[in-house]
Amino acid sequence: MRIIIEKDYESLSKKASLLVASQILLKPDSVLGLATGSTPLGMYKNLIEMYKRNEVDFSKVTTFNLDEYYGLSPDHPQSYNSYMKNNFFDHINIPPFKCHLPKGNAKNVVTECYTYEDKISKCGGIDFQVLGIGENGHIGFNEPDDSLNVLTNLVDLRSQTIEANSRFFESSCQVPKQAISIGIATIMKAKKILLLASGENKAEAIAQMTSGHVTTKVPASLLQTHQDLILLVDEQAGKLLK
Ligand code: GLP
Question: Which residues does the UniProt record annotate as the domain Glucosamine/galactosamine-6-phosphate isomerase (predicted)?
Answer without folding.
Answer: 30-229
